[in-house]
Write a structure and sequence with these properties.
single chain; about 130 residues; mainly beta; about 45% strand; globular
Length: about 130
């Protein structure tokens, strides 16, 4: 992760409403969970894909969508590729990260809460 979740104290204030994951132009972007694509277009100069998972929505930018609004996607399914655009993840037309967001209604949440960590026992060959 190159930048963490830092929500503003009030919705209209400055903050970081998601996490940035290091990536490069052309890298594949995959859905964090099964759901329905509810937005896949350019917004404020950058490609954005939104997948709705029941009460939750995940957002991905800057992304050239390979899916369409209304399409059902599976967890881990490719939804697009990283593209340069007007974004804090694009500097001088070079993409440096994927901005990944999570919302419940109108409340931004930390998308890392969706990541499951599994600890495995240490294997010792004796």
């Amino acid at each position: 992760m190159s930048r963490g979740f830092n929500p503003p104290a009030q919705n209209w204030l400055v903050g970081h409403r998601g996490v940035d994951l290091p990536a490069s132009q052309g890298d594949s972007v995959f859905s964090a969970g099964s759901g329905t694509v509810t937005f896949a277009s350019v917004l404020a100069g950058r490609g954005v894909v939104v997948v709705t998972h029941g009460l939750l929505r995940t957002t991905y930018e800057p992304v050239a969508a390979s899916v369409a609004v209304g399409q059902t996607v599976r967890s881990g399914q490719m939804i697009g590729t990283l593209q340069p655009g007007v974004s804090h993840c694009s500097v001088n037309h070079t993409v440096t990260c994927l901005h990944w967001g999570l919302l419940r209604g109108r409340v931004y949440m930390n998308p890392l809460s969706l990541v499951q960590v599994r600890l495995l026992p240490l294997y010792s060959a004796q």
